[in-house]
Amino acid sequence: MKAWTLANRPQGMPKPQDFALIEQALPELAEGQVRVANRWLSVDPYMRGRMNDVKSYVPPFQLGEPMQGGAIGEVVESRADGLAVGTLVSHMAGWRDEAVIPASQVQPLPDLSVDPQAFLGQFGMPGMTAYYGLLRIAEAKPGDTVFVSAAAGAVGSTVVQIAKAKGMTVIGSAGGADKGEWVRSLGADKVIDYKAGKPVVEALGEAAPDGIDVYFDNVGGDHLDAALAHARPGARFAICGMIDVYNDAKPTSLKYFARLIGNRVRIQGFIVSDFKDQEGFYRDMAAMLGEGKLQREETVFEGLDRMPEAFLALFSGGNKGKMLVKL
């Protein structure tokens, strides 16, 4: 097996030399285990937090040990009932080409007539994050005005589409004209180009002169400040991620934080693993897909050797839609 590991704990933005490709022998299968050959690997912004040796909602990566992440693979050897050779499964033994895993830690892919890699994106963790964050945490409803940061990313682009499918007005933020046009093509009513030079707080004020009801935060920083500045009474914020500060110790300024008092703004962070109703998610998403209300975009790097490159590209806006590595 070839696998990526952390050679050093990054200080600030990770560097290629913080990663090392290692080889390890796989053990013989025990009863109840499968050997999986990975076909698709995921990189996600939350992985940056696991590179720090700090207590968090997921344990940190260990130096010298294979890293973990979402993956889609094919069962190539099995000693587990109900998991035949050839079964496509999702699991968390990513950042490597093969893995021996207990059957309890793999999930056969649902039969939803989508490409296997979709279960790492719109029909996987990013899609569930978008769905539950928007509809359960922010309690978004028809008629709401929704502001979405990182709207060209895997989570944000799905938030845009679910919000439009559910009858909401959507303002998306994305970096650059190309990404902005794509977000607009997904149905966003207005798009802010945060790289255009105008402060986000000004651009959001122009896009939503009457304010916003919901903010779906993937960025933090000036986007969170702008959302607070333009929050309507009773606004709900779903805090999914803060990629703006993952590689930097700078605090989010919260210069408009006092507005949450008079406007009774509710701000709630969440983790997608809090939600277990996957059948409801798949049913609703499949219905939207069947009605032509969902599109998806993928940025694909080819080969295991490009995993760190794909991961680092997340922090420079190198992805449109879901970032994937194909083996």
Protein architecture, described:
It is a single chain. By secondary structure, the chain is an alpha/beta fold. The longest helix is centred in the middle third of the chain and has 13 residues, at 125-137. It has helices at 47-50, 125-137, 154-165, 177-185, 200-207, 221-229, 259-262, 278-290, 307-313; strands spanning 2-6, 19-23, 33-42, 71-78, 88-91, 98-102, 107-108, 145-148, 169-174, 190-193, 212-217, 231-239, 266-269, 298-302, 322-326. Helix 5 (200-207) crosses helix 6. The two termini are 13 Å apart.
Q: What is the secondary structure topology, with strand pairs?
A:
Elements: E1 2-6, E2 19-23, E3 33-42, H1 47-50, E4 71-78, E5 88-91, E6 98-102, E7 107-108, H2 125-137, E8 145-148, H3 154-165, E9 169-174, H4 177-185, E10 190-193, H5 200-207, E11 212-217, H6 221-229, E12 231-239, H7 259-262, E13 266-269, H8 278-290, E14 298-302, H9 307-313, E15 322-326
Parallel strand pairs: 8-9, 8-11, 9-10, 11-12, 12-13, 14-15
Antiparallel strand pairs: 1-2, 3-4, 3-6, 3-15, 4-5, 5-7
- What ranges have pLDDT less than 50 throughout 5 or more consecutive residues? none
Helical amount among residues, as a percent range? 10-25%
Task: Report the C-alpha radius of gyration, rounded.
Answer: 20 Å
Could you tell me the number of beta strands?
15
Summed over residues and divided by their number, the pLDDT gives a mean of 94
Number of helices: 9
Shape: globular
Order of helices and strands: EEEHEEEEHEHEHEHEHEHEHEHE
Task: Provide the β-strand percentage band.
Answer: 25-35%
What structural class do you assign from the helix and strand content? alpha/beta
- Straight-line N-to-C gap: 13 Å
Give a short account of the largest sheet. Answer: 7 strands, mixed
